Sequence to fold (1383 residues):
Amino acid sequence: MTNSATNLRLKLPMACIILEVIIIILFGTLVQYDDETDAKLWHKEIANGSSNYDNDFYYRYPSFQDVHVMIFIGFGFLMTFLQRYGFSSVGFNFLIAAFALQWATLMQGFFHGMHGGKIHVGIESMINADFCTGSVLISFGAVLGKTSPVQLLVMSVIEVTLFAVNEFIVLTVLGAKDAGGSMTIHTFGAYFGLMVARVLYRPNLDKSKHKNCSVYHSDLFAMIGTIYLWMFWPSFNSAVTAHGDDQHRTAMNTYYSLAACTLATYGLSAVVAHDGKLDMVHIQNAALAGGVAVGTAGEMMLTPFGSMIVGFLAGTISVLGFKFLSPILEQKLKIQDTCGVHNLHGMPGVLGAIVGAVTAALATKEVYGDGMADVFPDIQSGDVEASFQGIRQAISLAVTLGIALLGGLITGFILKLPIYGAPPDTICFEDGIYWELPGEEGSHEELTTVRTPDEAEKLNA
Amino acid sequence: MTNSATNLRLKLPMACIILEVIIIILFGTLVQYDDETDAKLWHKEIANGSSNYDNDFYYRYPSFQDVHVMIFIGFGFLMTFLQRYGFSSVGFNFLIAAFALQWATLMQGFFHGMHGGKIHVGIESMINADFCTGSVLISFGAVLGKTSPVQLLVMSVIEVTLFAVNEFIVLTVLGAKDAGGSMTIHTFGAYFGLMVARVLYRPNLDKSKHKNCSVYHSDLFAMIGTIYLWMFWPSFNSAVTAHGDDQHRTAMNTYYSLAACTLATYGLSAVVAHDGKLDMVHIQNAALAGGVAVGTAGEMMLTPFGSMIVGFLAGTISVLGFKFLSPILEQKLKIQDTCGVHNLHGMPGVLGAIVGAVTAALATKEVYGDGMADVFPDIQSGDVEASFQGIRQAISLAVTLGIALLGGLITGFILKLPIYGAPPDTICFEDGIYWELPGEEGSHEELTTVRTPDEAEKLNA
Amino acid sequence: MTNSATNLRLKLPMACIILEVIIIILFGTLVQYDDETDAKLWHKEIANGSSNYDNDFYYRYPSFQDVHVMIFIGFGFLMTFLQRYGFSSVGFNFLIAAFALQWATLMQGFFHGMHGGKIHVGIESMINADFCTGSVLISFGAVLGKTSPVQLLVMSVIEVTLFAVNEFIVLTVLGAKDAGGSMTIHTFGAYFGLMVARVLYRPNLDKSKHKNCSVYHSDLFAMIGTIYLWMFWPSFNSAVTAHGDDQHRTAMNTYYSLAACTLATYGLSAVVAHDGKLDMVHIQNAALAGGVAVGTAGEMMLTPFGSMIVGFLAGTISVLGFKFLSPILEQKLKIQDTCGVHNLHGMPGVLGAIVGAVTAALATKEVYGDGMADVFPDIQSGDVEASFQGIRQAISLAVTLGIALLGGLITGFILKLPIYGAPPDTICFEDGIYWELPGEEGSHEELTTVRTPDEAEKLNA
Fold:
């Protein structure tokens, strides 16, 4: 391991600054305020009888901020469970999220429809950009500890682009519904990341094995991430659903799904973990699967009852996945999934897609009334039958899996190029390789040793 | 101490899964979307001229999320102050809150009035369920470190039920006002928990004494809980008050009460603590008493001036309680109150009830104008005099104390049965009994010892 | 160092209680609910056709809560980076914020216009009080670790007063715009604090040098502060801007500025830090400079493009400031700036003021349309030209710098009086001087040593 290989003095600044300059130029050329953020245009609407309250800001900004917390605190701290990778977990999460949300604004803007050659931005584009970022952070979880920040930025460039393509196909071309992103965010992010991890397989990773685990306080930091994700998931799933009953119902379905999922997680964890004790890995992750699994159906008339069943199932398969499937993935399929994203986002995402397809296929005018127009506009307009909407949902899952796996494969090979300063097998899961660390020795001594009598005297004086 | 006694492999899964299955069945049978979450019903209201903004979601969802943060982060992290009980504090808080909010939805639904045999759910039921959960978590604070998760679930089943009964009597039968729950939440939860702790008295708890204290970083984690509770208490007290001036005023009164309480807490702490230094226990707890103490009167025309006086008093009695009363409770009354909930929720809750009774008795049409209808509908309608409203408030406090103490007594005896895997006196306040702990030895060494020259070289390379 | 010098038993209670009593008396005499929090007055507005939704609470309360989190969690935890000063960072932050927001309500009330001899309070006064508090906390960052809580309270009394005077001159007399406070909050707080730090210069501070640095977990706690500040800065800058497009646009401009700033920060940090590694100090601080730098122009039609350029510049100068300017400030100018507030708030604040002046000078009716009335009412009304508005902005910067520096100078000398229990040079950056610390020795051993076979057996039993 030589100095130059993982030294980021040139690589990271080049990546950050070049990417940011490109983004700024593209924003300068292509991006405009939308009707609700532009002073002139909004005041035209006011002159035409709108009230300031009609500005979408007031419908969605609280949800946006909750989503924002999930992206930066939730994902960031969830990954701090590693004993020696907290700086990188929070810090790289911060870096790639700040990049991805800008890049996503551009990529989603291209596909969601330009306005006279311009991308319009407002609160909805901000939420969608955060959503796309979430997908990248899921993939980050699969390769956590084994990648350099430059690799992660490159991965983000490609993944955000493919996310926007897939989202366009699923939501616009196929006409599927996926407000909370069981498919477009979770399934996509998980299988993309797993495929990248597969290509980047490190046969000698066991040399860093002793660092690939938690310590007491790192698990507590991770719980900050878990709890924030859990609490704000109702806001995540409802952030871009239609105004009124739709936002309200989506938030509530998610809340019930998560609650039921949590009970299942604790129950199952005690069954499968060593000695009938609880395993923090399950609590930190599987308890969230209920949010993933109602990402598609949450806005539908799933009922609290249906939401709870889905949540219960999601928690169950997630715990079982951590216990039984993850070791198989690693040993047989050579997928080293650091955070177990397959269990938290992969399988529950697929479950969520299936639940969405079934729930859509069962939609009736009797249940939805005029609300059908919000949830399934194509059924309301008579363009499709409910059963066909179900089929569109199912096809969307297949498309998402295909694009994610293929995209992850290609991205993996690009990231395999030995030019990004990736860590060697012996120094994975280790902050010290990319971060100046505080002097631990002296300072730690300070914290733990008995003070000298002299010092003690001063303090007690 | 044998294996079987505290092993949860059968007990916890049985408790979790049976309870969740019961809940799911009851939800399937009894629970429906309300008018604002149901697609068909809400669109009927839209057809009748409502705007999406009239959906209560937009009035209350931001407050709900703040309350949610208080329940899961606030209470959860506040209790991580124990050096070796962080997993259990956050983790059991998470478990029993996820359970209690579901159970509370059912119990409160029964008592708050069924609609054609169905319980209607929406944002207000979600807030109320979180409130009820808060009460259970207060009781949890009294028995923290000395109970198994199975005991806690059983306690939650009973306490939620009695909470709903008491709430029904206080708010519906007696017609008292208690929007922020000085009585129904804080007084109830505290005295219920204290009585449970009394019955579960452990004469040999001093065998675990060395773990019943904090370390440096555990106190910092606890401050996360404190600060979140402090910041969001205005949302808590105003979450279910009437729209408009009521929510606005309640939030502001709480904000001022807490600010004054904080100054009193710091001042008093320096007076009573050792050597004129500040005591973290006071800061973490007593600074919050101002929120508790305006839980009843916060929605009334208490004025900022009145709110500050109440907050100042609450901080004062809370610090003094920690210093002088807690030792007496433990030694004379045999109540081992781990978190000092008597000082944070008990006495300030009673203070809040008294303040509420006095403020209600002083209500005049001159001060409230037409706003009287929101705060005291029975006075507005002429059904009662203000003085009688004050009496109803006072009776409500007595009823709450009675139900809490009696309920806690019975619950304590039920929890005393030796079937729940409670920890022995020697291993209280210890995560290791219920949680798989990360390997500390090797990993900690990793964190603190001087690296080998070889490793150091690699890192610096 | 004798006992009496830093013992707070008398000093802190006297300061806290006297100040709080004064505040309560002044509130009793001078403060009233405004039209939107008073039951009678609001219901008069309702009777006149207003809807509850017109209550400013619903426009601003979510933003207020985000600002509140920035003040108490953001600032509080950002300063926990010191290895041994976490209790004081969070705890003194808590104390002086709780005091300052009350005092600010009074001081700003005097200057923002009394109503019949009374100060009216509501959600907007709460946000403004939190803003003023933010300024005090910035100054706290400059003197962190070297001041007693009594000194900090005295500093707050003076600084809040001068803040209100400066704010009055800048916003009311000069008619400048500064919704996010690049000038009034950041520039003012930074240069005030730097001047105080200059006067309180400690030539022998190197005796505490070994404690003036971070440890691994303290840096992670600090990242909690950083991320919260970063996420909620859009709410900060938009909290008091006009309803509708203004709040919406301000939040979005801030979001883009911060994202670009973050990329610049990571890039520059890797360039200037040791060995091409990232430096936590930069990430924790410089990544936030983008929020500071659009504090004035954020509500203007800066465009996302302009916002990103400003953010990118802010991150760049902030990292360079930490690397090259801070050592000069300390060695040549004798300013010991503990948190580097000059780099995070000082220079980016001045940059923000300049950007604001330029953007204002370029305002045209063509771009703003009728929205001009919200952003630049004096230009809309024809009272001033855009270019003159730019000049007013520039003058405001000069005035702010003048009042901050002069105020800080005087305050520094007042704080130099040897009566406040300030720590000696040898025990700076040390919680133990003002806080009862948990017994670390025994407890830490508990956490790290191999358990005795006996204990281990019990745990594994």
Observations:
- The first helix of chain B runs from residue 3 to 6.
- Chain B touches chain C through 87 residues (CB under 8 Å).
